[in-house]
Amino acid sequence: MLAASDIRAVESLLAFWAEAGVEASYADAPIDRMAEGAALLKARQAPPPPPPIQMAGRVSAAPQTGAGIAAAREAAAAANTLEELASAIAAFEGCSLKLEGARQAVFSRGVPDAPLMVIGEAPGADEDREGAPFVGRAGKLLDRMLAAAGLADRVFITNTVFWRPPGNRTPSPAEQAVCAPFVERAIALVQPKMLLLAGGASAKSMLKSNEGILSMRGRWFEWTPESGGETLPAMPTLHPAFLLRQPAAKKKAWTDLLTLSERLDRLGRPQ
């Protein structure tokens, strides 16, 4: 039972709410709106829970580099001709670039038993479309330079990777490492007398060097196969795409080609 004073207090409160326009009660128990608002604010500030881990279903992911290299070595070793090597590259699933939008594998063009092998960095948009390396603007510049140096019909051209990187970015060392067994097998099948490494990414990958291309270009290095065996003289030079952006640097690349051509001719002369 309520005391008389409590009854008068309730009546007074009801009268106050009635004068304020309150005509009905929506809950039997009072609600602390301040506490309710604080709880909502705290919930908004808390970070969302992490998404659940999907344990089932097929997940597309890039192959592991180590497993990819091992698979590439096995596939490359089984190729006894350049045609078989091209087919092995096209069927290879161990390079992540193949999963990133490339239309097709881009292997090589040129003379199968050429004394000079040109190794660039990666296919671009034109190469990805046509299926051959150095066929765009940079490739046409390379062809003109090789022809001027008397090397047009003496070259075999390939890249350190065989699929176009997204956005024509530079291939990563991991991507180059996966493709390296195919490059090495191509060298073994062509048996060139020397290598011309076009661009910094090619020179660094082939020579296992961290030097910049402006420091390396025009100098002779020795390329040694990962599997061991005979070394080859290798000269880094500026990439034709760089020369299109920096025409003043063409003189340096031309000097590199003349130096290489002179040595190649010297190797072909009778002793």
Describe this structure in words.
With 271 residues, this protein is α/β, with parallel strands linked by helices. Helices cover 46% and strands 10% of the residues. It has eleven helices and six strands. A six-stranded mixed beta sheet has the order 1-3-2-4-6-5, with helices on both faces. The protein is elongated and about 125 Å long. About 4% of the residues have low confidence.
Keywords:
10% strand, 11 helices, alpha/beta, 6-stranded mixed β-sheet, 46% helix, single chain, 271 residues
Overall spatial form: elongated
Determine the fraction of residues in helical runs and give it as a percent range: 40-55%
Strand content: 5-15%
Main beta sheet strand tally, sense and closure? 6 strands, mixed
Coarse structural class: alpha/beta
Order of helices and strands: HHHHEEHHEHEHHEEHH
Note poorly predicted spans: 53-62
- Enumerate the strands of the largest sheet in spatial order, edge to edge or round the barrel: 1-3-2-4-6-5
| Count, helices | 11
Mean model confidence by pLDDT: 88
Distance between the termini: 126 Å
* Integer-rounded radius of gyration: 35 Å
Beta-strand segment tally: 6
